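User: Sequence in, structure out. Go.
Assistant: Echoing your sequence, followed by the structure tokens.
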Amino acid sequence: MSYYRQDILNYGEDVSDLENSPFETLRMLHDRTELHRVQEQFDFEDKVLLAYHDLKLIENAENIVQHISSVYDFNLSDTNEIPHEQWWWHLNKIAKGNMDFGIATDIGKVM
């Protein structure tokens, strides 16, 4: 198992668990940012696994935005100039279909 595999698996569990508190779900977005920071160190399997969980996050975007809106205002993502490459901080736009996103590996696009 690679060094970051468990972190990716934990992120995946959080993406699929809509029973978490809004604060725990918000923490998941911070965890995704940390994974983004170290993704150059991922092997191909880690990147594919992360992309798989990202697709689940995108699939649940509307529910997640609604779930954490009581503790996070997604407009802050623009105010704080969070880059669109960190698309998880812009889930509100993705849920409305107002933002493109890409999930890639070194070899090519996964999506």
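User: And one key feature?
Assistant: The chain has six helices and no strands.
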